[in-house]
Amino acid sequence: MDKNTITGLLLIGLILVGYSLWMQPSEAEIEAARQKQDSIEIVQAEQAATQLENETAVLSAADSTKAVANATPLDSVEQALRDSLARIEKKRQFGALAGATTGEVEFHTIENDFVKLTFSNKGAAPVMAELKNYVTFDSLPLYLFDKETSEFSFSFWLNQSQEVKSRDLFFEAVDDEMSSTKAVYRMYGDTRDQFLELVYELPAGESYLVDAHIQSVGMDALLSASEDQFELNWQIQAPFHERSREQEQQKTTVFYKYIDDEADYISESNYEEEDLEASAHWVSFKQQFFSAAIIAEQGFSKDNAEIETIELEDENYTKGMAARLTLEFDNERDPTFPFQFYLGPNHYQTLNNLEIGLEGQIDLGWLIFGWVNRWMVIPVFNFLDTYTGLSYGIIILVLTILIKLLLFPLTWKNYVSSARMKALKPEIDEINEKMKDKDAMAKQQATMTLYRQAGVNPMAGCIPMLLQLPILYAMFRFFPASIELRQESFLWAADLSTYDSIFSLPFEIPYYGAHVSLFTILMAISTFFYSKYNMDMAGGGGSAQLPQMKMMIYFMPVMLLFFFNSYSSGLSYYYLTANVISMVQQFVIKRYFINEDAIRAKIQKNKTKPKKKSNFQQRLEKMAKERGLNNPK
User: What is the secondary structure of 434-468 as a DSSP string?
Assistant: First the structure.
């Protein structure tokens, strides 16, 4: 082949390429052709529908045998028509995403040492979360949510007005990026360069956090003007995990935290819907001992954001929880919105280590009660748990002893005050006998004069008791909220986090239940003897003479039986040991450290010394005098 021939062929090739490029239609022409094709398909569908009606009329008038013979081709035409109409409707509704409306559901699982998370390609959504190191009260796998009752879906808009939900679309798994710890899904537009991508990654090893992000690539032409906002809808029905469904239900609700604020929540006792008033750092579906939370460092927008708790009838679930959140990102500068899931236990130290305030959903009490738990009880409990290797029943006993030793100075003051009051009992009985016909105010004035002369403060025993209340209430909050006690046995209690049962009743007693808790019975008995011992220690003097106070000794244990029967057996066990230790302390102090004769001698000596009246005593005397003037005999 000579040089001229080669040159000629090259020129012809260039001419053909140039002609092809010159004749290629523009984007506007392509879109017009697409619309024309859609119009043609619609017209064809209408014509087919008309033809179907005519053939149906002919078939009705024909012989039944002939109708059977013609049924197969007619069904074929009808099915083709329906398929055509369905394609047109999907094209109208989903535009370039119409191809993603069909497919087969497939699942992919990622897992590490702690969490097993299952995803569906329909919606690219997490549909089931299992905590591998925990089981339910009846030893079944523990799921935070399941695919039958959960929904995780993003909403966005096409053509300025058409809303599309990811739950209606099939995403493609990116096979070369899928692994045992990672799931990557994409939904494509007109080309492979246009897609929405969802990525989930679970760090290997020991982690309850799942890293995730949603990314929009080349979708500007398909999405509406609000492409910088995706609406996230997440809803679960919390499965029933614990022995007491009622107790678990009462501790299940939606928590949330605004950026630079403290955690807040929807009432646990009501079913409510609440609008979020600021950007939320996280929203958590909190169950009694476990949580499923979604976290965004930059925050979820407050636009159209709301949370909700839902009442359920299914006994296999405790409560429905839902959140609608808005994701904002710049589709041009940074088309990615990163977020995380926390799928794990409500363990204080684990949540506190995340440093995002998730530990605020553990009910440790408010103000001083919460401080006592955070700065004293939890560190001591964790130390004993980590370094002693003791069972949790023994740890509770050791913790009780340490608390009682810490409170011993206050206990000492209380016992000394009681001994002094008992030493004054003969004088108080004498006053009551002499003034039995007098009114209560005069009798009270004479009693206060005796206290002043003897140097006894009747409030001295109350103040130490009040100072102990923060610890008593802190422990009341600590034990039911401690996941460490969950499914830990001690003596006859199979689970210290819930009630112990030594006998099941064939019927249910209102406000009591259908079981008998032995720890509660022992705690109530110890409360009765402890209260009676305290009253005897005080010698029946002062306020102890009031009939209602004596009634409380008998009424309080009965009330505790009803209140604690379905409560944490660990808490009842703590109060039982605390009462027993207190009575032992009181016996030892009384027998070996308090000399009642010496106290009485000191009181008699104080009575001879002039004492300045306190403001309280002066007011009592003034009131008595005024009462005497207003009611002369």
Answer: HTTTS-HHHHHHHHHHHHHHHT--TTTTHHHHHHH
In sequence order, what are the residues at sequence separation of 6 or more whose Cβ sits closer than 8 angstroms to the Cβ of residue 309? 253, 254, 266, 270, 271, 272, 319, 320, 321, 322
Tokens coding 33:
């052709």
Domain that holds residue 87: 28-100
Q: What is the pLDDT of residues 66-99, one digit of tens each?
A: 444 454 555 666 666 666 655 666 665 666 677 7
Tally of structural domains, the chain: 3
228: nearest Cα among 96, 330, 377, 368: 330
Q: How far is CA 187 from CA 89, 97, 99, 198, 482, in A?
A: 19, 8, 9, 9, 43
Domain assignment present for residue 208? The answer is yes
204 with 274, same domain: the answer is: yes
Shared-domain flag, residues 198 and 274: yes
Same domain, 41 and 175: no
pLDDT in tens, 543-590: 444 566 677 788 888 999 999 999 999 999 999 999 999 889 888 888
pTM here is: 0.78
Identify the burial level of 61 via C-beta atoms within 10 angstroms of its C-beta, where 0-12 means exposed, 13-18 middle and 19 or more buried. exposed
In a domain, 614, yes or no: no
Last residue of some domain: 77, 100, 123?
Answer: 100
> Which DSSP category does 432 fall into?
H
Lookup: tokens for 229:
């906002």
Nearest to 92 by CA among 154, 162, 27, 37: 162
Cα gap 18→8, rounded to integer Å: 15
Sheet hosting strand 141-145, strand order edge to edge: 107-111, 115-120, 125-135, 141-145
Tokens 């897609």 belong to residue: 195
Domain identity same for 112 and 95? no
Classify 608 as helix, strand or coil.
coil
Q: Is residue 624 part of a domain?
A: no
Q: Is residue 255 within 8 Å of 265, Cβ to Cβ?
A: yes
